[in-house]
Design a protein that fits this description.
With about 140 residues, the chain is an alpha+beta fold. The chain contains three helices and four strands; from the N terminus they run ααββββα.
């Protein structure tokens, strides 16, 4: 490939980038900002993303669940602590395949053994209601 062809190809690749930069500069000027303001905003977004719960890379589980423990052998029935609270309370979660929704309840305890006992009782109650097709939430007047 000749040097002239390489130069022409390089210029044709840079034209969309230059157009995008000019469009961004025009947009920032139109709303009263400059490149420094954009850099500050992008840094703030980067920091917010670093501090928010993110999915784990290895198994696809979210960091929302701390100390996750299965109630029985199924993956969809578990107790866990929430990562975004400081109370240390345990929560119960079961997935309803009929309505395609997760059902969650606070167990109001910080003791894991008590949470597991309460969760197993709740599991029997809620699973029975799901199997019978009953409403899980009461109708309020």
């Amino acid at each position: 490939m000749s040097e002239a062809n390489q130069k022409h190809e390089s210029e044709s690749q840079q034209k969309p980038i230059k157009d995008a930069i000019n469009a961004l500069d025009s947009l920032l000027t139109a709303v009263g900002f400059d490149a420094g303001d954009l850099q500050i905003a992008l840094e703030a977004i980067k920091q917010a993303k670093e501090h928010s719960p993110q999915p784990k890379q290895d198994d696809g589980e979210y960091r929302y669940f701390l100390d996750r423990t299965l109630i029985y052998e199924k993956k969809d029935e578990l107790i866990y602590k929430r990562a975004d609270t400081k109370t240390g309370r345990w929560y119960f979660r079961i997935y309803d395949t009929k309505s395609n929704k997760a059902i969650k309840r606070a167990l109001m305890t910080t003791d894991k053994t008590q949470a597991l006992i309460t969760a197993r009782t709740l599991y029997i109650d809620i699973k029975g209601k799901i199997d019978r097709g009953e409403r899980l939430k009461p109708i309020t007047p």
